[in-house]
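Appendix B. One record, verbatim.
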Amino acid sequence: MTDVTPKPTAELPLAEKARLLAGRNFWETEASESAGVRSLRLADGPHGLRHQSGGHDHLAMFDSDPATCFPPGVAIGSSWNPALAAELGAAIGREAAASGVDLVLGPGINIKRTPLCGRNFEYYSEDPLVSGVLGAAYVRALQAAGPGASVKHFAANNQETNRQTVSADVDERTLREIYLPAFERVVREAKPATVMSSYNRINGVYAWASRWLLTAVLRDDWGFDGVVLSDWSSVNDRVAALRAGLDLEMPSREAQTDELVTAVAEGVLDEAELDRSIERLRTLASRIERREATVDLDAHHDLARRIAAECVVLLRNEGDVLPLAPERSVAVIGALAETPRFQGGGSAKVAPTRIDIPVDELRALAEEDGGRVEFAPGYRLDGEPDAALLDEAVVVAREAEVAIVFAGLPEERESEGFDRADLDLPADQVALIRAVAAAAPRTVVVLSNGGVVSLEGWHDAVDAILEGFVLGQGGGRAIAEIVYGRVNPSGHLAESIPLRIEDHPSWLNFPGEHGHVRYGEGVLVGYRFFATAGTPVRYPFGHGLSYTTFEGEIAGVDVTGPDSVRVRVTATNTGTVAGKHLVQLYVGTDAGPVRRPVRELRAFEKVHLEPGESTELAFALDRRSFAYWDVEARDWVVANGEYRLEVGPDAHTITSTAVIELDGDRLATELTLDSTMAAWLDHPIVGGRTADLIGFSAVQVPEEQMAMVRSMTMTQFVRISGLDIPAAALEELMAPTRRGSRPNDEKE
């Protein structure tokens, strides 16, 4: 762009304004000298840059330029380490800057409502705190490198089945407590340049057309001042989208400009709506700094390895079979050890700069110390049965001291665009695991999968299980270093592994019917349900073993303000090797008028400890840590009563507890003639006066009769009791309970 003084937005031609609010092509926005808006280049990039300098598409059907493939979101979630998420974000930011990319489309921070979602590999967790903390760290670091981030997919995009049209029917409390907080944290703490709206509908309204979501919540409640852009080709009503608060439609679409110009000309759309979006694009273009950048791809590969090593979860380690002594003879079995699954499919698919092959990395480390590694593929990656491969694997396993079976899901079983039908591993892999476990003296299973898989039918037959999920291009080396003890595993599950998919709270309401999916489990998502219902799982949220042992204990609680405390936790390495301990702090309460999960994660921190070392960590819990969303007050409310502060190694195992009392908010229910007598008699403001009015203060009502009375509405009670209760007297009691005028619900 030349040095032309930009015109005020109001003076720009209407057609030019409309043109600027859509992409120029698949990956670039429009530019205008007169508007002072430069073209921006966009690229996918949640776990690595997918920049296409050749053919353009959104589903990785055309080749992209080589870039470092870092561990995807599922792995980063298992690290529980925001510092690692920041290192990843900074590295992607450097690669983006070096490629001339202005906006990176990531991170994806949607909640894992169901383990069957085909895109779970791209997301962090079933918990909004984990998702928000990691997402904020990623965004801050990426944007510090120059490019902007695009946080996605806003919101309630939790399945791939019918994702373009399905309506996620979810109540506001559940939205506010589960599906929105991660976005809120990223917006407030990291100030992302853009937010990407999702394809799906929410309660019947498309996310890109919801003024409640894009304006009332995102801008008015959270203070977002960036640009809202659409997911690719999602918008089918540009006027409604702009009015809702969607600034930029991607990619280009011929009719888009005409739709806006016509709507303004016909008086359907106020031109000021376009002006607001143009101003946001101006600010965005000036905010994103293009920098000269060079990238050390060798250093980035080493970083990818280091990050991956902290993401691996040691699920099981019977008899301390891991780590292996390097001199032992090892059979590595499974085609995935030779052709690793290291990322998911779809728009996030990266062309890696190199790939560490697990069997090669294991062999290299073993041979350094005189060990021996033999390999057998065991199965075909296309799923076709091959008895000869199975027989060969059993022979190799029988001759080794330890067999390591690499199993997992091939890409055709999970990807963007479709959901899984079950949690099962391919049948030939299950048969292989069972056969090898029967033949080998000791058996270790290494899993590669984007979403959790069932461990049933073979779990008890093996000695150790490493859940690698998908680890990026450096995953092969990371696995080898953990197997041989050069790295102490410190990953923890950021999602529950159920015994059966039928046990999962989403099961009866997935993937939906007739274009709607009902979020019937409400706030009881993932571990919130399993822990509350006492439903056993194979491995709980937060679980992860180490080659050492740890203890965590609440050392004290300090009151820091109304409904806020500081919790001090002592963490100790009680074992014989150094390791990283994850402190998980949960809060639970039975107080208040709504059903709450038995516990919810409210703080966490990962800390390195030498053998015998102790350290004290301090966690600040504010009002939100104790609050629920009150649908009547339309605000966060802290109930008066007792709260449990709990520390433990996972969401089902609590080892230290402290109980505190909070004054909370003494909110009174708004009374009407249709309120129950229980609500009237128990009301903190007018309960006593109600009892006086109906004469209950002066008489002892039998318990059985009182139970019937309390279940009646006031209208029913007046009719049945025959008491002469003046309407004016009831109105006088109701008046002080009213919350005052409240805005009407949005009619969209």
